[in-house]
């Protein structure tokens, strides 16, 4: 088990909780005054001389000592609760090198995982069945090669990536946009608890911090900052996943994207990334090839790509599956192409859907499901 660490000072936690005192401002204050205690001892005039705004000065003049004391109680409540300052040897060097790196991290779980080589897998919350299957498959494949899967615990692609890693018997890291005294979103409660037990939950926000919209773009820089590269599975144009990819590129990380159907709006973000220079990915080997210089000392040789899901045994279902492609096909088109009646075709489609071979789409349309790793 990790060695027990000294708790942060009450003054440091108060500074972390002061509205308007972000990582850059906090580092500047600590460099100027030497410690959190010295910052408070300096007083308002010195804070103004240090460039603090009136709002920041007002916040620092009324530190929330009660909330900071709650933070200390939370840290003491379990050996799996951690505070990791940026001068701690557990703080990941890759994250420390990014712009506006968090001054400290709160974590629940195995803090040793922060030092593992990581691949971020992110994407749309409202992902398709194929997108979720791809995220799970890539997470399983990456975990099998020794890469730690990191994501943001959101619904859709993030959740599928975390679940794929856990199902493979590996750990996973979830970076959260709220305090770690709660799991957000609530629908991922069981998943979050499993990650805390077998992996690591991470946040720059102290316990008790509620999730706010502005927190999630902020946490994305941590997801990419922890990772060697970022794989975007599905994303709409202008989505948070593209923000993560942009941050990754700015941080010098590799950016990977899965192509999709031109009829799928969730593929447009990935296609835009590919046009802008992201690596088009079809198998896990495409990722390993790009990361090889960094991975060679750490990981075994890449495994051969997994085969596409085997065709079903039923001859009619196999015939229907062969008629389906990656682009959606309507029920009427299939019936005409295969010369099948509605009842016969419907039974075959239902069997394929229940077997996880195809996806039913709005408007009585269908397409294949593949494992792309």
Tell me what you see in this structure.
This protein is α/β, with parallel strands linked by helices and 373 residues long. It contains 17 helices and 12 strands. It has 3 domains: 70 residues, no CATH class; 185 residues, Rossmann fold (3-Layer(aba) Sandwich), CATH 3.40.50; 54 residues, Arc Repressor Mutant, subunit A. It has a 9-stranded mixed sheet, with helices on both faces.
Question: Nutshell version of this structure?
Answer:
By secondary structure, the protein is an alpha/beta fold. The protein has helices at 10-17, 23-33, 36-42, 44-49, 54-61, 65-76, 93-96, 129-144, 157-167, 189-198, 215-226, 240-250, 268-275, 284-295, 315-323, 331-338, 342-354; strands at 81-85, 104-109, 118-122, 148-151, 172-175, 200-203, 229-232, 254-257, 279-280, 329-330, 358-361, 365-368.
């Amino acid at each position: 088990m990790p060695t027990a660490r000294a708790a942060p000072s009450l003054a440091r936690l108060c500074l972390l909780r002061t509205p308007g005192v972000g990582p850059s401002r906090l580092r500047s204050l600590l460099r100027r005054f030497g410690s959190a205690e010295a910052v408070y001892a300096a007083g308002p005039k010195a804070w103004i001389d240090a460039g603090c705004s009136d709002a920041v000065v007002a916040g620092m003049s009324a530190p929330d000592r009660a909330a900071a004391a709650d933070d200390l109680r939370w840290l003491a409540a379990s050996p799996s609760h951690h505070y990791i300052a940026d001068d701690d040897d557990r703080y990941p060097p890759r994250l420390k090198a990014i712009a506006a790196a968090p001054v400290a991290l709160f974590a629940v779980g195995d803090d040793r995982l922060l030092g593992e080589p990581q691949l971020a897998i992110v994407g749309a919350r409202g992902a398709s069945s194929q997108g979720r299957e791809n995220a799970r498959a890539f997470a399983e494949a990456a975990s099998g090669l020794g890469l730690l899967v990191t994501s943001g615990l959101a619904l859709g692609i993030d959740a599928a990536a975390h679940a794929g890693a856990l199902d493979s018997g590996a750990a996973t890291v979830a970076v959260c946009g709220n305090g770690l005294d709660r799991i957000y979103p609530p629908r991922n409660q069981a998943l979050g608890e499993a990650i805390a037990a077998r992996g690591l939950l991470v946040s720059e926000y102290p316990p008790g911090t509620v999730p706010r919209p502005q927190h999630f773009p902020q946490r994305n820089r941590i997801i990419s900052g922890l990772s060697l590269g970022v794989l975007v599975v599905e994303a709409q144009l202008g989505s948070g996943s593209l923000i993560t990819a942009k941050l990754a590129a700015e941080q010098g990380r590799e950016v990977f994207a899965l192509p999709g159907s031109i009829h799928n709006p969730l593929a447009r973000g990935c296609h835009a990334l590919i046009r802008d220079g992201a690596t088009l990915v079809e198998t896990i080997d495409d990722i390993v090839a790009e990361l090889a210089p960094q991975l060679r000392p750490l990981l075994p040789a890449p495994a051969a790509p997994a085969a596409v899901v085997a065709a079903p045994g039923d001859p009619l279902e196999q015939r229907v599956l062969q008629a389906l492609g990656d682009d959606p096909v309507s029920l009427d088109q299939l019936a005409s192409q295969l010369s099948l009646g509605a009842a016969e075709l419907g039974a075959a489609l239902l069997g394929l859907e229940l077997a996880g071979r195809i996806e039913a789409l709005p408007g009585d349309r269908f397409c294949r499901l593949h494992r792309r790793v």
